[in-house]
Fold:
Amino acid sequence: MFAATYQEFCLQGQYFNQQRHRSLAELLEHVPGAAQLPFLVSGAVRGYLQQLGGWVPGIVDNLGQSCLRFSQFEFELLASDVLDQAQHRLAISFYSEPLVWHDTVGPYLLVSDPAAAGPAGAFTTRLFQLQPYLAIHSLQVLP
Structure:
């Protein structure tokens, strides 16, 4: 996926790069319309995302199973250089549907799907570890 987005940046960048700017930052600063580049490059990510089957990569529960589904994502092209692939930087933020947070157990979150309440208010829960780059985007306090 990384190589595909870099190749797509180089390919799409040719259209905007008539004055031989090397970096994404130079293109964005000097070339009208270059702000479209991140959107144009994002197409290279779609195949990768389909392979994930809706699961956030690298987030597994205490049993080693994928446990966090995403419903939306945001792609960002952070930096790139047409002559230096090592400068290529991107970010993909995954957004899940809301979860019910029940408790924190050490470094683990105990959560459940709010739509999956069973009989007598029982929940099927997941326990997964907090880790770098995992963030809670929003929180709703219930009465």
Remarks:
- The chain has a mean pLDDT of 85.
- The beta strands are 72-79, 89-95, 100-105, 108-117, 123-129.
- Residues 2-16 form the longest helix (15 residues).
